[in-house]
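Async update (no meeting this week)

Hi team, since we skipped the sync, here's where things stand on the single-chain job. The sequence we agreed to prioritize is pasted below, unchanged from the tracker. I ran it this morning and attached the output directly underneath so nobody has to dig for it. Comments welcome in thread, and please keep replies under the output.
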Amino acid sequence: MRTPQHSMQKLTGWMLILFSCISLNSCAQKNDNTIKQDGKTMEYEVKKSETEWKNSLTPTQYSVLREKATERPFTGLYDKFFEKGTYYCAACGEELFESSTKFDAGCGWPSFYDPAKPHNVKEIPDSSHGMMRMEVVCSKCGGHLGHVFDDGPEPTGKRYCINSASLVFKKK
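Output:
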């Protein structure tokens, strides 16, 4: 005869197996050049496993670019940095922003009003954390860069709020 305790243990075991399968499946989705965005699978040119990403990026870069973390405001290398040059994706080297479009938004992250080449960044709806925003990712590797807002200066009125950890700067 089965006791209620036995049934509960069996149910708990099945729940644990189900949770493990779901966790493994979500990890498996991140092991190549595909990233799930709002139910759609996005394909990117750069193909690396998560191990390869971890080996090629610093822990902070990996956290921001691959896990969509955000560095604390006013702590990033490029927040108060205004030398002339070009900003590239720290994960794949794609050209992202020119210093001529950088401005001090006072928000604590490097801000730009226009990408160097519009097709080098993608804007993806982001409903995480109970907000509706537009996430900005590198179009070549899918790395998370930051978010874009409609409160920037002319001529675009955009503010690309970008994590320093996702950028590499090359001086002109």
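Quick observations from my side:
The radius of gyration is 20 Å.
Residues 11-33 have pLDDT under 50 and may be disordered.
Reply here if anything looks off.
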